[in-house]
Amino acid sequence: MISCKTIFHDSDFIQRRFIHKSSIEKCLSIQLSGHEPMIVAKATQIVTDMSADLIDLNCGCPKKKIRSKNTGSKLLSEPQKMYALIKAMNENTHVPASLKIRGEVKVMIVLMRKLLAWSLMPVLLF
Predict the structure, then answer these.
(1) Residue 15 to residue 60: CA distance in whole angstroms
(2) Which of 4, 27, 59, 61 is catalytic?
(3) Which residue of 33, 72, 76, 107 sits 20 to 30 Å from the alpha carbon of 65, by its own alpha carbon?
(4) Is 59 a catalytic residue?
């Protein structure tokens, strides 16, 4: 997981540290952490330009450190913000974008219905 702010403010560091694809690897997936649509949009553009094959937004991490930054599972309590973030990602990449979410079954069902109603991405259950 990489903070969108880190990508936005220091994309050279990200390219040197995180964006390395071995010749035996097939797919490069980048998991983002963020809560500001403009920053998430720009970070999505940057990692798309760095050849990411899949971009995932973390909306499931329960760690206090992550939640205190209004990211991770903190986003589950703000569906409209999640909508804005998903929309920002989809508008700034041509590769598949996904969300990592986890929680109680009732909460998950409500969120999945909203995602489907928003028609921004398919919903997969694992």
Answers:
(1) 25
(2) 61
(3) 107
(4) no
Full domain range(s) for residue 97: 2-118
Q: How far apart are CA 62 and CA 55, in angstroms?
A: 20
Going residue by residue through the chain (126 aa), what tens digit of pLDDT does each one get?
888 988 878 767 766 666 666 778 788 888 999 999 999 999 999 989 888 899 999 988 889 999 999 999 898 888 889 889 988 999 999 998 888 887 777 777 777 777 777 666 555 554
Instruction: Please count the structural domains in the chain.
Output: 1
